[in-house]
Amino acid sequence: MTTLPKTVVLLSGGLDSSTALAVAKRDGFVPYALTLRYGQRHAQEVEAARRVAAAAGVAQHVVLEVGLGALGGSALTADIAVPKDRDITGAGPIPVTYVPARNTIFLSYALAWAEVLDASDIHIGVNAQDYSGYPDCRPEYIHAFERMARLATRAAVEGGQALRIHTPLMELRKHEIIALGHSLGVDYGLTTSCYDPTPTPDALACGRCDACQLRLKGFADAGLRDPVAYAEAVATDLTSRR
Question: What does pTM read for this prediction?
Answer without folding.
Answer: 0.92
